[in-house]
Amino acid sequence: MATIIQGFEVLTKPKDTSIESFPIFITVAAGAGQTTVTFPTQFNAIAIALQIENQDGANAASYRINSSTNPLINLPASNFRSFSDMNIVSVTVVPGAAGPCIISGQMAALPKPTLPELGAL
Q: Could you report the per-residue pLDDT of 107-117, keeping only the tens digit for each?
């Protein structure tokens, strides 16, 4: 059964050991401001595991997953937050002024859509 997350139809089951997955690594530069990564549009995939690492030793960063309206969550300096066994469509981060945020994740490719059978023309 499909789940709709932020308008994307998600068929992936995060604990399914038969799906093929691949890693991603994204660096959001210090002071870059609010940056959103939407996995289906940028990687044609859903994140089934994700880690957000704040490499700023002095300043907190902020993040949120699967939402454009929930408040940002604080990520203290030199800290990380990880998520696993989830379907994650997007992540938004706001890095501190003195160090980047690293987003690393395990992506499961979205299934290719099937075309309906064509009737007689």
A: 998 876 665 55
Q: What tokens appear for 105 in the block?
A: 């994740």
Domain count of the fold of the chain: 1
How far apart, in whole angstroms, are the C-alpha atoms of residue 47 and residue 53? 16
Spatial distance between the Cα atoms of 89 and 84, rounded to a whole number of angstroms: 13
pLDDT above 90: residue 8: no
Is 71 inside a domain boundary?
A: yes
Q: What CATH number did the domain enclosing 83 receive? A: 2.60.120.340
Domain that holds residue 91: 19-109
Q: Span 94-103, mean pLDDT? A: 97
